[in-house]
């Protein structure tokens, strides 16, 4: 769900193309009239042009049309007393549609829209028996928002403990366990980790939230005495765990009077800080369904140029267990337009080393990554490489490497993948060598003369390829898809894939 | 059945008193109240003015040409006649405004307020009589009235009709202006005819203004017809057992005829099919007409040309616009 916290600026109607306002207004008025025809009363309609601002009610529910309608769903508010639930937002509106339900604007079919509201009330009465455990407690808390972003990991291991936190560049991260001394000059802040367990009804205010905590009095007091700057509140929905972070930003208010200090009321203003877990599990969710099958695979990639660098990134993101990168060349600033490593500080570094360094420090990385700054020239080494890895990838576009690996694969009865771009990036191919199940190899690419003049860069012995960066990324993605298929026993095609976009029109 | 909800809501907005109206009326009331209150005699009689009439009941429409100022004399002395009160009010006002601006009427004193865009204030003195008030008659007597109760009845009726009664009264007042112009009966008669029709069950609560308006037009036409043909006496809801008196020159027969015809148009509009909204709107435009600021106070619904024909582009409904790449996308 998403909530608009502030009124959006009204569009300048004079800037709207002719007919646009009438188009939107027609859909809006048709919707309003359909609701009136089903017993709703139009309470107000201050809509102007394409900017909707109308409200209808039938005494049970109110329907609000705001700017963005009809492409955004109407807001619906209950007019009868209904307990707060996970299915109402912080402003009390019913959560009727998720972003996945927005295709085709289903709310414009008024009967289906009203049925959806009826279903909501029915499920609410039944206690939402088939409720998905969505972890979005922060969407319900009506608190001012702290602009700082909080990152955490292994929060459950800190439950009931104080934490030392470091704030830098708008981010707050956990640095260790313990309280920060009041006299500390290291810029550290103190956090505390609490757990409110299963949450049947989302708290909507600070008081709601803190009343759910054990040791409410103790926590209030600690916050009041400036002993807690950041409060991590863990919670649970069914078997899923989440956390919400409340901060108490420093105030410039004068010290409180003694009488005021004697009361137990917090005068520090709680804020909601957007936060996220750094735990491996939340990264793994995004690696795809094959991640677990890739955990124990070792890929050896020769060639860490533009194409090879993006293939390495794709494999690491997919969750490959181990990756060895080999390349003898140094990275130049010119490479960076197409290369994954586009940080000037790496200029002059070996491509394989630079790539290893970059990928190893990526937050999603769970792979063991090694680099080798030498070229693969030794036939003996080629045999060893093929025998000792789950899959070898040639991304060198170097005929020597390809021929050596090809011959070595025959002798070792092993298989590797070679990938490249051709025809200035209009052709890209992934070849499984030899093809699976005795299939025929993909025929060679029909090469066309380049339409671009040859360009040379100082220090390079060969002309610079006019292949565009997007073609590199595309070829890398295609290659990774085939590699993952081979590594998980579900190959995409027996011989690989050849894409030729033909000549430019 | 054509619903024209947004057009009716815009029409209601278009006939609301203008910003100038909202400024001029209360300012003029306050100015005159200050002048009257500063006079020793009137002050001694406990003069305590309030705004009544359509403006006081908040059912007036753009433009507001006149407002009624009800000057309650809380300490009204015995032995002072109505004429003496009116004369006193006249003398006080004419000292501030010139004789051209102040007119001594039979039952009130009228002031053309300078610099108020032609606004008239009708000053009506009133004395307490039991539970109600009395105002002067043409023959130096007093007659009972209860404007405060009238305002409360309007408020209750509006609650019963889910806040749609007052907007409906305003729309009917606009219809009267369009249909009858300066001819009588005036807006108060229309309002009271509607109130009577509601009390009689001819007009009932409806969530649709399209339907309520058609029903209200029919109800007022019915009451007017009975007044014209049968001498029907409209009850005064603010004073049980009493009946209302309207201007003697009011032509209820002509008014009934106009309202009957207009009510038929409003009903035809309401009964039209959903996709004939433009044609329905044309009929309602004929009933509500124009005012100083809008050529048509009732706008054509979106998606229709000014002749009521549907625009070719106005066909969008749910299901028309499937996302080009299909569903279940990730980005």
Automatic annotation (TrEMBL), chain B:
Transmembrane segments: none annotated. It comes from the Bacteria. Residues 1-27, 298-331 are annotated as: Disordered. One of its GO terms (molecular function) is nucleotidyltransferase activity. Signal peptide: none annotated. GO terms for biological process: defense response to virus. Keywords: Antiviral defense, Transferase. Residues 7-16 have a biased composition (Polar residues). InterPro entries: NT_2-5OAS_ClassI-CCAase, NT_sf. Pfam families: SMODS (PF18144). This is Nucleotidyltransferase. It comes from Tessaracoccus antarcticus.
